[in-house]
Specification:
This protein has 6 helices and 8 strands; from the N terminus they run H-E-H-H-E-E-E-H-H-H-E-E-E-E. The longest helix is centred in the first third of the chain and has 20 residues. The strands form 2 sheets. It has a 5-stranded antiparallel sheet. Strands 1-3-2 form a 3-stranded antiparallel sheet, sandwiched between helices. It is an alpha+beta fold. The radius of gyration is 17 Å and the shape is globular.
Length: 215
């Protein structure tokens, strides 16, 4: 199952929680409802599920729950001293949360366990990555998922937008591991810096998680 498999690869200081993005949009705080007043119903439900999952994860760490408003870049604004990440896709919604300290960045992404559409391959994959795609039907989608998780994990530190080719990924599906490397400088990271991650495939979903630890 997806959730037990993910918990098995996460460090103990990282909490994981799930919510149903297809359920009624309950649990939003007034400020959050105001921020999403113009959202279409499906987006509103996903947003609400993400906030429910995030607050459940915060509670699991005995952190005070709080409103999680979207910033100008649409990323959640986490309370001081908290790092987190939210993802929804394939009918699932997951959130990761940790106290800031040993953990300085978190990223999670969920994708359907389907081949990456052929018209996305050149956009997502570097030339080196494309050479490896024949090894597994799902590898292109796994690379996409890993890059999305890595992007989220580093964004709170760099505040820089990255293109898919600004990251290069190696994947070991047998071990459930990936490594995402910067191909250009992205302060505080230099070209060549690496972010390790884990890959879980279960219940028709691919999930990538990246946990960045303090040096």
């Amino acid at each position: 199952m997806l959730i037990p498999a993910l918990r098995a690869v996460l460090p103990p200081e990282v909490a994981l929680a799930e919510a149903d993005p297809l359920a009624a949009e309950t649990g939003l705080w007034p400020q959050e409802r105001d921020a999403m007043a113009r959202a279409v119903p499906s987006r509103y439900r996903e947003f609400a599920a993400g906030r429910r999952a995030a607050r459940d994860a915060m509670s699991a760490l005995d952190l005070p729950v709080a409103a999680l408003l979207p910033g100008p870049d649409r990323a959640p604004v986490w309370p001081d001293g908290v790092v987190g990440s939210i993802s929804h896709g394939g009918g699932a919604c997951l959130a990761l949360v940790a106290r800031q300290g040993r953990v300085i960045g978190l990223g999670i992404d969920i994708e359907p366990a389907e081949a990456l559409p052929s018209d996305m391959i050149e956009t997502v994959c570097t030339a080196g990555e494309r050479h490896s795609l024949a090894a597994h039907t799902l590898l292109g989608r796994v690379i996409f998922c890993a890059k999305e998780a890595a992007y989220k994990a580093q964004y709170g530190l760099s505040r820089q937008m990255l293109g898919f080719h600004d990251l290069d990924t190696t994947v070991d599906l047998d071990e459930g591991r990936c490594e995402v490397r910067f191909t250009r400088d992205c302060p505080p990271y230099q070209a060549g810096a690496r972010m390790p991650g884990r890959i879980v495939i279960a219940q028709g979903l691919i999930c990538a998680v990246v946990v960045l630890s303090a040096a």
